Amino acid sequence: MVNKIAFVGIGRMGANMARRLKDCGYSVAVVQDSREDAAREVAEELGASVATDLSSVTAAADIIFTVVTDDEAMRAIFAQDALLQHAAGKIFINCATVSPAVHEEIDAACREAGAHALEACMASSITQARDGTLYLMIGGEEEIFKQVEPLLLDLSASLRYIGPTGKAAQVKALVNMVMNINTAALAEGLGLAQALGLDLEMLCEVFSQTGANSRVLETDAADMRDRDHDCFFSAAHAAKDSGIANALAEQASVKVPLSQATEAQYRKLIELKRGELDKSAVAELTFPGRL
Amino acid sequence: MVNKIAFVGIGRMGANMARRLKDCGYSVAVVQDSREDAAREVAEELGASVATDLSSVTAAADIIFTVVTDDEAMRAIFAQDALLQHAAGKIFINCATVSPAVHEEIDAACREAGAHALEACMASSITQARDGTLYLMIGGEEEIFKQVEPLLLDLSASLRYIGPTGKAAQVKALVNMVMNINTAALAEGLGLAQALGLDLEMLCEVFSQTGANSRVLETDAADMRDRDHDCFFSAAHAAKDSGIANALAEQASVKVPLSQATEAQYRKLIELKRGELDKSAVAELTFPGRL
Predict the structure, then answer these.
(1) Alpha-carbon distance A40 to B235, whole Å?
(2) Between the CA atoms of B231, B234, B235 and B239, what dihedral angle is there, to the nearest 10 degrees?
(3) Would the CB atoms of B215 and A211 count as touching at under 8 Å?
(4) How far off is chain A from B99, nearest CA to CA, in Å?
(5) For A237, phi and psi rounded to 5 degrees?
(6) Residues linked to residue B28 through DSSP beta bridges, in sequence order
(7) In a mutagenesis test of the A interface, which of B161, B165, B175, B178 is the best target, namely the one with the most A β-carbons within 10 Å?
(8) I need a labelling partner for B284 at 20 to 30 A (CA). Which of A195, A197, A230, B245 fits?
(9) Nearest alpha-carbon partner for A233 in A217, A216, A250, A214
């Protein structure tokens, strides 16, 4: 049987994953998005149809990728009149970074409908989606994971089964929590260096060779210096993800003052109407004379 | 002329630098430390004499390395009755991580005494001191730097002239500021992961392959997990260095909420009488059921 694939939430990530799957010979049958224009454009490009309501997405596909923005959007697409109508036997692969508890809720709802849910947490960005080189962490039933493993391998450079539902989202929340702190930390270091009149290129080279080195130094330092905040991972997403981690910490009675300070910085960017800039824009708050 | 070398403040760093220089054929003539026992032990090992007062250190050497703990100690050794008596022509190489302004003060005092001061800021630890593979950043007059460059090359794997007095200390403060934040961030991530029952080894592997990667992940993660806090760089030093950076930020009106939260974590360790543990001990504050 050739699987028919659907995408719900066809933003830049979803569209690039769909393009990649089409290149690999899969049939992307149907796409849906709350912004119908965007869905129509991608559908046309891929030769897919546009679903106007969610229940028809499920009817038209065997495997449904969901790539929505947040907890609320996830709950909405899995509400009673939505994706889970006549969903028996269907597999939902949920790619949004949402709270682990939401993955558990949706897993329970899928079981009740005779369907299966997997978390597919992505620690990478749109370029990797297009190239099929995502870093994917999967949570859910291992047997269901095995069924879709070949498909997921076509999307990823690294594919890792983490454990039961909720665990992949926990790992993802921790990755983004630490990444966001390191990003805000770099913004403080470079902003202060700029205020002191130091040569930022020299400083970044020193950082790279010492205990201050980090992945975000490679990915974000030049963008911070040059104010190039074209969005790969938005400040709004960073605020949301740090918020998920901070809520987990509160539930677990773990104190995370740095992660809270980081969430506050990203929330400040949202307040200043800069939430749609890349997370590197946190440097706008620390470089002298910017915001 | 064969230079005679002195060391003031012969802790583990200073002692290892002295050992390395002796291996390279230099004459370490005299050592001094406020803890006379420690000075005597190292002097015996190196065949050096112990100076009981600071003015006799200057008399007995051409090049004097100072490796003391903080601003106060630096000011004390360069006070009127101390190192700067009959110091004309002598070169002081100051290795402590102190406030940039203190380097400037001491530079001025040295000029007045006809002596020369260089900052030699080290972004590395005792192992590198012993092996002559320090990461050294030099501030001060470039001409004086050139005079001692061969000596400094014997101590370092990377030697970099940063600029006028104070600039190397600024760079060092920024390196340690960002390193300390990243360390405290990692402690939050791993502590929360432990609380959630995640496999820390798996998590660290994921961190290493994603945006959460950092140098401190390599150096501190296992120590945090295993509570192995043998001191390479103490929590008390981390508090001091973050404090130097935060003071620079305040003077420059740069907001650094993460660095402030980091300093507060390290100060808490000092309050809890854990200041002499390694900086990885910040995880004692975030792992469930520890402090």
Answers:
(1) 57
(2) -170
(3) yes
(4) 13
(5) -65, -40
(6) B5
(7) B178
(8) B245
(9) A216
Helix axes A215-226, A200-208, angle to 10 degrees: 170
Tokens describing residue B287 = 């792992």
With H, G, I as helix, E, B as strand and everything else as coil, classify residue A214. strand
Residue B211's Cβ-count burial label (10 Å; 0-12, 13-18, 19+) is: buried
What is the Cα–Cα distance from B13 to B237, expressed in whole angstroms?
13
Chain B CB contacts of A135 below 8 Å: 209-210
Q: How far is CA A277 from the centre of its chain?
A: 15
CA nearest to B134, candidates B122, B149, B148: B122
Q: Which residue is listed with tokens 């498909």?
A: A151
Compute the distance between CA of residue A27 and CA of residue A64 in angstroms, rounded to an integer. 12
Closest Cα to residue A233, out of A220, A249, A248? A220
Q: How far apart are CA B287 and CA B53, in angstroms?
A: 46
State how far the Cα of A85 lies from the Cα of A169, in Å rounded to an integer.
25
CA dihedral sign, ordered B122, B128, B129, B132: negative
Report the C-alpha gap between A199 and B272 in whole angstroms.
39
The helix/strand/coil state of A26 is: coil
Tokens describing residue A287: 């470089």
Question: Average pLDDT, stretch A127-137?
Answer: 96
Residue type, B3: N
ipTM of the complex: 0.92
- Tell me the pLDDT tens digit for each residue of B129-138: 999 999 999 9
- What is the CA B169 to chain-centroid distance, rounded? 10
Question: Are the C-beta atoms of A133 and A156 separated by less than 8 Å?
Answer: yes
- Cα distance between residue B89 and residue B55, in whole Å: 14
For chain A, how big is the Rg over CA atoms in Å? 20
Number of C-beta neighbours around residue A44 at 10 A: 11
Q: Taking a C-beta distance cutoff of 8 angstroms, is the pair B96, B78 a contact? A: no
Domains of chain B from N-terminus onward? 4-164 (3.40.50.720), 170-285 (1.10.1040.10)
Which of A160, A206, A213 is the closest to B214 by Cβ?
A: A213
Could you report the per-residue pLDDT of A188-231, keeping only the tens digit for each? 999 999 999 999 999 999 999 999 999 999 999 999 999 999 98
> Is A191 within 8 Å of B254 when comparing Cβ atoms?
yes
A220 CA: distance to closest CA in chain B (Å): 10
Helix (H, G, I), strand (E, B) or coil at B284: helix
**Closest residue in chain B to residue A216, using alpha carbons only:** B211
Q: Which of A112, A92, A129 is nearest to A12 (CA)?
A: A129
